[in-house]
């Protein structure tokens, strides 16, 4: 109908998006190729490049699809960098596109490594089982090298975003980096390196929170009430989401600390009293701490208070947002459970470190009145897991009894008592979740076995 190139380019791009939606990847590729040849502006060129990359990215029948994506993105980055040095009047726009291309490059590299598309040559000499296991182990030398490269790409994208004032977009780079560092911490066997990865992930998420707080203060400084509401509300949700991720990370750190105390208690129980006295006075157990351990202990001392502050603020921010409210309730239950067991282990070892955990528990429970009596009663009467034999007198294997409460050994809660957990209009009739086995992101319902009402959970989950 129209002869102008701008309209023709937009039509080609929209047809390509429709073809991609219909999974007609060859058609989408052709439309994207035709669209990028039409010179409209820089942003349209970037969108057409993104469409072309997606047409290769989701073509699972093409073994070289990820390699083609990387070549397209690397070539696009080279072109953008040349244009930046020439067209100084478009520097900010071109810098934004460059940062987005680096982020896409990191995302596709990460996906390709996980799917085994970018590491076939290194793993070709291995058996199929070894290949499959190495793809899922980030500490495998090949995987670690590639994932470290992905982190560097995220960092490059973040620096370009931040340098040119795109703070909101820079947050996604930091979140992605923290997820990779958390994966390193989960897979690492070395205790000191594990702590270092946890601390790096913690600092990265803290930087996210600082940026979001700056943006929130800028939004609250606006004059129009409607502008304040429309701009600040999405930022507040992002703040809440980052705080929940920080709470999850801090709970993982507490859980690691708990496991260390358990190992220490197990070793101590095998020693006689005279040996304990000699070691205590000789100071044989007090080693000089390195920088990582010192920083780790400093963070551990602050975690209980930070957990209580973050969870309380998230609880009130997320009352009307069901998926975030569900995550908040989960983190509350998991934090209570870890803190309770920490208190028990410290009390068992006659240590005085449980005072900080007491104050944290009191802060959280005094604020959330509906949970106050139940939580305090569970923590007060906490006992280690009970065991029963499997019925065979010759067998030495024992199985733990898991009640429908969070804390092992607690008395089962009847239906009348479960009503105490109900919030307004039964929006969150969820029992306290248990230990590491249930540490998921509330996506796969089959993994959430300790839930009071599965049908209600379906309404709470937002994919």
TrEMBL record:
Keywords noted in UniProt: Cell projection, Cilium, Flagellum
Region feature Disordered, mapped onto this chain: 387-412
GO biological process, any: cilium movement involved in cell motility
Name listed for the protein in its UniProt record: Cilia-and flagella-associated 46
Signal peptide range in chain numbering: none
Biased composition (Polar residues): 402-412
